[in-house]
Amino acid sequence: MQQGERLKGLDDFKWIAAALVVAIHTSPLESINETADFLLTRVLARLAVPFFLMVTGYFVLYGAYAAGNAAKIKRCLLKLLCLYLATTLLYLPVKLYQFLGEWALYRNIAPKDIILQAGRAVFFDGTYYHLWYLPAVVLGLILVWGSLSILGRTGTFLCVWLLYLIGLLGDSYYGVTAQIPFLSSLYEVIFKISSHTRNGLFYAPLFLLLGYEVAIRTRLQTGLVGQPDENGHIRKESALFFFGTLLLMCGEGLGLHILRWQRHDSMYLLLPFCMQGLFTLLLSYQGKESKPRGFYTKAQWKAFYEKGPMLLYCLHPAVILILRGFVKVTKFRFMLTISPLYYLIVLGGSLCLVYICIRIRGGYESVSERKKHP
C-alpha cells in the first residue's frame, strides 16, 4: 500500500467530519424526530472533533516528537494561532454587535469580571462559539508535548486519561457530580474559568495522544507498506470494533439523555475507544484521488481537497448568519423551520464559500508566480 493511498481514508473523512460539525449547529433531523436528531448531532457527530485532533496527533506529534523535530510543532502552533486570529477578526463585528445589544448586562459588571470573561473566551471557550477548537488544539499540543518530554509515553497516557475522566464528570456525567457537594463545588470553580470541560485541558490531550500512538503503531510496527490480505483483515477487525463501540455509545448517550445527567454532550466514556476503531479503519483504506470538474488547475483542486474541511469548519457560521439575515428580510421562515433544508442550505452555501476562497487564493498565487517569473 502506498503512503498517499493509505492516508486517503483520513483525507476523505475530513469532509465527512466537517459536514458533521455543520450538522451539530443546524440539527438536520430536528423537525422530523428529536431522538434521531439527538443520535445524529449529539452522539454520531461527536466523532468529528476527536477525529481532527487525532489527525493532528498522528502527523504533528509523531513528526515532531518521534523524529526529534521540535520546529514542526512550533510551525503548527503558529499556523493555528494565525488561523485563530484571522477567524476572530472575521466574526469580531458580530461579537461587537452582540456586546452592544447586551450592554445593559455588562455595564454593572466589575472590570475584573469582564477581564475574566474575555480571558475565558480567548483561551478556552473561543472568541466565537465554534472557535473553541483552535485554542483547545494549541493548549492540548503544548500539554502533550511537554508531558511526553517529561513523563514519557506511559506517564502521559495515564495523565491524559485522568484529565479526560475529570472532564467527563463535568460534561455528560455531570448528573453524578452535581449530587456530590464537594465535587459540585470544585466544578463550579472550573466553570468560572471555562464554560465547559470540553477544552484543551480535559478534552483535547487524550485524542492528540491517541493519534500519536496510532502513528507509532502503524509506522514503526507494521510500517507504511502492507499486504492486501493483511489490510483486509485489519479492516474487518477495525470495522467490527468501531461499529460495536459506536452502537454502545449510542446507548450510553441515550441513557444519559434520559437520565438528564448531561450538562453538555461532547464527552462519552466510550468515545476514545470508538475513535480508536474509526481511525484504524480509515487508515486501512486506499484509493486514487480524482479531479472533479470546476477546478482549472490541479493545484487548486489539491488546495480545495486538503484545506477545504478546515475552511468549511471556520466559515459555516458565517453562512448561518447570512441565511438568518436573509430569512429575516424575506420572511421565508420555512428555510429555517424545515431542518433538513436548513442543513442543506448551510452546507451548500458553505461549500460555495470555500470554493470561492480557494479560487481567490489560487488566483492570488498565480499572479504572485507571474510576478516572480515574468
Topology (SSEs and partners):
Blueprint: H1 3-6, H2 8-26, H3 34-42, H4 48-66, H5 70-101, H6 103-106, H7 111-125, H8 133-168, H9 174-177, H10 181-193, H11 204-221, H12 228-259, H13 271-283, H14 298-330, H15 334-337, H16 339-372
What does this structure look like?
Helix content is 77%, strand content 0%. It contains 16 helices and no strands. The chain has helices spanning 3-6, 8-26, 34-42, 48-66, 70-101, 103-106, 111-125, 133-168, 174-177, 181-193, 204-221, 228-259, 271-283, 298-330, 334-337, 339-372. The relative contact order is 0.14.
Provide a short characterization of the protein structure.
With 374 residues, the chain is mostly helical.
List the defining traits of the structure above:
single chain; 374 residues; mainly alpha; 16 helices; 0% strand; globular; disordered N terminus
Number of helices: 16
Taken in chain order, the helices and strands follow as: HHHHHHHHHHHHHHHH
On the 0-100 scale, what is the average pLDDT?
A: 87
Estimate what percentage of residues fall within beta strands.
Answer: under 5%
Low-confidence stretches: 1-6, 222-229, 366-371
Distance between the termini: 41 Å
- Largest sheet, described in full? none
The helix fraction, in percent, is over 70%
Radius of gyration: 22 Å
Helix and strand composition category: mainly alpha
